[in-house]
Design brief:
Elements lengths: L11 E2 L4 H4 L8 E5 L2 E14 L8 E15 L5 E6 L24 E2 L6 E2 L1 H18 L8 H9 L9 H7 L3
Antiparallel strand pairs: 1-4, 2-3, 3-4, 3-6, 3-7, 4-5
């Protein structure tokens, strides 16, 4: 982990700055490219929950490390982006906003988003990877056009990054 990256607290409230808490900057993800797909591993995700206290109901956050983001183009030319966070951590202890401690029947109210979201500096990295991938493939639209697919297949580049199409042409008599 780089020296300038801190480990965020297990739970924090809504009025605290993420940079002060050490949520950002997050560790740099490892980036791997295979064909028309980019895989980013070691991504930090933030998860949202809400206090169920009678007076509070304010948001609470926690984070997980080691998530994966995949982005790229399917063989059909349609773009995709998938987020795979580790299991959402339990919201345990007292609310950092009001000090409410859930009783036996109470529990933190988790957000409907099960996976969480990549933290803001990772989103910037995702945006840059889309730019690099589209520039390298010569695609200027969100999804590939038929002309893009024909051009890339004629170059012998398929979605897995192999030269299978070119080999097939060279084997013909």
């Amino acid at each position: 982990m780089p020296k300038n990256v801190a480990t965020p607290p297990s739970l924090w409230g809504w009025q605290q700055e993420w940079a002060t808490l050490g949520v950002i900057p997050s560790p740099s993800p490892t980036i791997e490219r295979i064909g028309w797909t980019v895989r980013m591993t070691g991504v930090r995700f933030a998860h949202l929950g809400h206090c169920d206290g009678q007076e509070c109901r304010k948001p609470m956050y926690t984070s997980t490390e080691g998530g994966v983001v995949e982005l790229g183009f399917r063989p059909s030319g349609r773009s995709f982006q998938r987020h795979h966070a580790l299991a959402r951590p339990n919201f345990c202890g007292t609310c950092p906003n009001c000090g409410h401690r859930p009783g036996r029947d109470d529990q933190w109210v988790a957000s409907p988003c099960r996976t969480g979201n990549p933290v803001s500096d990772v989103n910037e990295c995702i945006r840059k990877q889309w730019e690099v991938l589209r520039e390298d493939l010569g695609v200027s639209t969100p999804n590939m056009t038929r002309a893009d697919l024909r051009r890339l297949n004629a170059d012998g580049r398929d979605s897995r990054g192999s030269k299978r199409a070119r080999r097939r042409v060279e084997q013909l008599p």
